[in-house]
Every structure is written in structure tokens, then in C-alpha cells.
């Protein structure tokens, strides 16, 4: 066992095992003995030759990394719990998310399908909206800083984040950020803005779709040269997301998609394939018609009953309206009356129905807590970000359609659009 693994930070955070290492330190799986919960602990190492002034700068940057996400309450941004100074260096205690990052997924599986990339992009836009409204710019959005926990997409590592009033903590002449994902204006020495985060989002989505970032040339200088002088190669796998990439990767930030226009284009891209499938794929149900034919057969004078069985084509939109197999037989679906008219209804069928609902892209809480068994909550905002902590204990209806339930303790993250 290493010296670090024997540490208990601030008499409560016990290091359990190493999760991974990076250029700036190590991330540990830990346990908060006071609150009895698992945590992630980021150990930040200071270079041995760091002078006193640079050491002060390093501490300030660490505190900034912790404060930036600590101000932002949304499931799409990692939650920070504490900062501890131990053994002369800082440690950041945060939410433990045991999930691969987007870079690891691309390396393992290759380019991702457009529908999945659209889902990732939509949640990252929500995370950026919350950060930018608080005056915080991430400045290092890239696949390795995006965690994929089932349906939940989480933006992490605000170590380079900038907010108004924060001291400028980088030295002149030092490149800050990741060259393959940095916006052209930032690479040229201009100050980072919300628009530069949107460029990095575009480069991240491009990498997810194509398996590589748009300007990566293998080394820093060649990458920066391509960024300044070349256009990105047209994506081959983007499908309906091509206009989103084109708009986000405009080199002139004034021509780049705004946040609102990026959301609009992405949602159009997400809805087009679904609409096309609904129109192109007919649905059929088995219809059984029993007709009693009162007739006299001349040859024998016997009345006969005819059983007619056939396939009948459903009218479009019947399944889209949320009809279940039960309702197709004439029995009403077990659905709360409010579910037909509201985007989201949650009913607690167990004692562990804990939910976290916010208005998507904002800091406005709708509800956070554990519902009593039998309690029903109706949410009428047009766009909602939802975390269900135990899908077996909650019945969830989205726009009148009951969502599948999971095993006890299974968590699910949802984005609801009216």
C-alpha cells in the first residue's frame, strides 16, 4: 500500500484505491467516513521545481477548479463537495462517477452513431448554458472531460475555467487548453468567451462522429497551424448533425452558432429521423371480428356463424399518443389523468422514489427529494432535466407514455421536451 493510500484527509476522507492518473495528478476512489458515502478525490501534484509565486498561483487555480462547478447545480456538471490541503498540496473531493469518458468510448468503439452523439451534445449544451449564465467559461471542453454514465452526460474538470473577478493565472507565452479542441481565437491569444466553449463542443462532437478531432495533426505546432490555415474535412458520419458541426466550427466567433441556435439545430436533427421512421413504418394490429350471419343455406337450411380474422393497419400517431397493448384491447391504461396534458408525471410506488428535477438549462429546481409511497407529482415546464435514483420505485410518464422500469437501485437520467 502506498503512502497516499494510507491517508485519511481532514480526518474523514479515506482513500480506497487509485482510479487513474493524468498530467496534473491522480484521481482516487475514496470514502467519506462522516457521511458514509463513496467519493472521488483528485490529488493535485505540484512540480518539484515550482517557485513560491507559482505555488500560490497553483493553489488559486485549484480553488477555482473547485469553486466553478460548486456554484453550478445541474446533473450535467460534476458536483464538488470539498477542498482539503494535506501534505502541502490540495485535494478536491467530488461526486464519484464510475463511468467511461467519451475519449475512452471513441478509442474502444470507434465513431459513435449520430443519434447518440446528438444526445451527448444536447446535454453538454445544457451544462454550458448553466455555466455561462453564471459567468463561467470551461475553456477545456474535450472528450476526456465528458463522462458517460448511462443516459447521463457529465462535464468535468473545470481546472482551466474562467469567471469574472478571477485572477489571470497563466503566464504569458504558455499555451492553455488542448490544441485539438481549442477555438481559433483563443489559440491566437484572445480571451476565451462562451463562443469559444461552443467551438470546443463542435470539435468534441466531430471527434465522436468521425473518430478524430477536426484539426489534430499529431503535434502541437502542426495542429495549431492547421487550425489557423485550414478548413475541417467534411464529416463522413454526421448525417443530420452535419449542419450542427458546420455552425459550431465557424472560425469567426461572430458567425458561429449561438447557444440558442445550436439547441434549435440539434433538436431538429434529433427529431427528423424519428419523424421519418414514424411516417415510413406502418403499424399493424390483429383485429378479430365476429359476425353472426343470419342466413338460410338453401341446401340445408342451417344458420351459420362466421369468424373473420384479419390484420388492420393502425392509424398513424396511435402508438405515438402513448397507447399501450392494454388500451388496444379496450381496457384503459393505468395512467394518471394529468399525464396526458403534462410533459412529466412521477408516481411513487415504493419508499425509495427519490428524484431530482430541474428546468433544463437553468438553476430552477422543480423538486428534489424522496417522494412518499403513493405520492404523485406533476411537472408542466416545457423542458426538464430529470434524475430518477431508483427506477423500480417510481412510475414515470413522459408526455403520456409510461417509461420502462429498471431493477431496484437502478438510476436513470432523462431530458424531457414538451
TrEMBL record:
Principal EC category: transferase
PROSITE patterns associated with the record: PROTEIN_KINASE_ATP, PROTEIN_KINASE_DOM, PROTEIN_KINASE_ST
Residues bound to ATP: 42
Domain Protein kinase: 13-270
GO MF: ATP binding; protein serine/threonine kinase activity
InterPro entries xref list: Kinase-like_dom_sf, NEK_Ser/Thr_kinase, Prot_kinase_dom, Protein_kinase_ATP_BS, Ser/Thr_kinase_AS
SMART domains from the UniProt entry: S_TKc
Keyword Nucleotide-binding assigned: yes
Keywords, comma-separated and alphabetical: ATP-binding, Kinase, Membrane, Nucleotide-binding, Serine/threonine-protein kinase, Transferase, Transmembrane, Transmembrane helix
TM annotation in the entry: 286-309
Gene3D superfamilies reported for this sequence: Phosphorylase Kinase, domain 1, Transferase(Phosphotransferase) domain 1
EC numbers, comma separated: 2.7.11.1
Keyword Ligase: no
Similarity remark: Belongs to the protein kinase superfamily. NEK Ser/Thr protein kinase family. NIMA subfamily.
Protein name: non-specific serine/threonine protein kinase
Source organism phylogeny: Bacteria, Bacillati, Actinomycetota, Actinomycetes, Streptosporangiales
